[in-house]
Every structure is written in C-alpha cells, then in structure tokens.
Amino acid sequence: xxxxxxxxxxxxxxxxxxxxxxxxxxxxxxxxxxxxxxxxxxxxxxxxxxxxxxxxxxxxxxxxxxxxxxxxxxxxxxxxxxxxxxxxxxxxxxxxxxxxxxxxxxxxxxxxxxxxxxxxxxxxxxxxxxxxxxxxxxxxxxxxxxxxxxxxxxxxxxxxxxxxxxxxxxxxxxxxxxxxxxxxxxxxxxxxxxxxxxxxxxxxxxxxxxxxxxxxxxxxxxxxxxxxxxxxxxxxxxxxxxxxxxxxxxxxxxxxxxxxxxxxxxxxxxxxxxxxxxxxxxxxxxxxxxxxxxxxxx
Length: 298
Ligand code: GLN
Hints:
By secondary structure, the protein is α/β, with parallel strands linked by helices. The protein folds into two domains: about 5-15 and about 160-255, Periplasmic binding protein-like II (D-Maltodextrin-Binding Protein, domain 2, 3-Layer(aba) Sandwich); about 55-155 and about 260-295, D-Maltodextrin-Binding Protein, domain 2, CATH 3.40.190. About 40% of the residues lie in helices and about 20% in strands. The protein has eleven helices and 13 strands. The strands form three sheets. The protein has a five-stranded mixed sheet with strand order 5-1-6-13-7, with helices on both faces. It has a five-stranded mixed sheet with strand order 10-9-11-8-12, sandwiched between helices. It has a three-stranded antiparallel sheet with strand order 2-3-4, with helices on one face. A hairpin with a 3-residue loop joins strand 2 and strand 3 (about 85-90). Helix 4 crosses helix 10 (about 265-280). The protein is globular, with a radius of gyration of 20 Å. It starts with a helix and ends with a helix. Glutamine binds near residues 79, 120, 158, 232 and 256. Glutamine binds next to loops.
C-alpha cells in the first residue's frame, strides 16, 4: 500500500493544490451570489420556511432553473455511519459536518435539506439516477468518480489510516502484506487502494473484506474476522474513541479531498451548490462547522 500511496500522491497533491487555488480566489465569476453572504438566516436549523422567498427574489436568474428531485427540497445521498461527517443523533435525526454544511447550502438555495441514508456504495448512483440531488458523504474526489459525477469545490480533507487491535503484530503498513485480512467499507477509496493488485501496491481482492459501513467493519475487527480496518482518519478516531482496545497506526498519510458530487446532467444545480459552498467557505461558516465537530473535543 505504501508504494501505491506514493504513486497516488502526485495525483492527489495535484487535486489538493487545485482545490487550494480555488478557495483562495473565491467565486470570481459570481458577483451576484456574494451579496447573500450576510443573510441572518444562517443560524436556523432547517426549520425556517420564510427565508426562501427573499432568497429567490435576489437570486441570480439561473437559480430559477435549478431542477431538484422533489420541489422545495434538496435531497442529500449519504451513509450516516461516518462520524463526524454524518451520523444518527441521539434523537434519531441526522447530524455531522456534512449534514450541517448541506443544511446551510440548502438554506442559501431556498430549499429544505432531506437526508437520504443509504450504503456508501450507492451515493453516486443515487445522484446519477436522479434519486438524490447531491452526494455528500466524506466523498473523496477521484478521477474515476469524476467520470460519473461533477464535483464542487473541496470543503474538507481526509486520509486513509489503519486501525488494529492493541497488541496486534501489525506495526506498519508493510505488515498488512503478511497474509492479513483487511476490513474496508464497500466502494470507498480504502477499498480501492487495498483491493488493488500487489504489483500496483495493493493486497489483492482475496485479502480484503468489504462491509456496508465503517461501524460493521469495526465490529468485524473486534470479533477477529479481520486483522485491520482501513478507513478515513476522522471516522477512525471516532470509532477508536468509542471502542476499547483499538488503536490507529502511525503511517504515511496521503491527503484526499472531500467534495459534493452532483449529476452531470444538472449543471445549474452544480453551479448553484458550488457557489453557495464557496460563500460558506469564504465567510468562515464551513470552518466553524468543522471546528465544532473535529477540534472542539481535542
Ligand atoms: N472518503 C472515502 C471515499 O470517498 C470514504 C467515504 C465514506 O466511507 N463515507 O471513498
């Protein structure tokens, strides 16, 4: 995996540089959208139905043509077992970084957020098939996924890490090659890296077991069905904190960029969501949301 990660590094770095470049020069072509940034409705938690009227009146003409799956709603395809990006709250609702950012984007567009919870492996097809409007699931931008959906600006980064039981004989990434079984979430970049051929730096399909979500992969690790779990760093931290006897290995990390996936057949929605996201990055809302979940408890 080390070798493979090193090969990927160049591509990922290019992506990450591109994303940085984009965020340091925000919304240059969208002057009309800038004026909405000061709107007070930003604190509302999806219950404000009045704000949209004002939004629509001031919105650029293109907003009028935005097609959504259900009138007045913004459907977000996600897998709500990926803390702290998306998870089920104590009261049975949805919460997390992605959920809050999507709520803020929906508000800017005069829409109400609806979370469509599904397996991670379905979030892109749900958007492609016109069942959901946006895929937002700690979703890493990859060249292959770009063939299937358009991506917005990146709003967060992640890295793949390795979780093992304390006392495991897996001490480094190289030890994963010693006939180990690796648990991953189905369809994720962790799965893609690990299941690749040995020549390409992976471990081969036979050494990888896929689970519908991270929580199930962790259960398999605790039950001894797999020797390690490869997953994004922030969920890894959350799972290790919530489960005794697990630890995250120190490895060489490659930065992946998370962005929102939108159907290639809906460029108006893509542009509107991208413009709203850029405003939320520029005015510090995204950082505030990320800090609330990631830095607050540290
Ligand atoms: N970032 C990883 C990917 O996009 C995992 C995302 C997830 O499991 N929700 O493949």
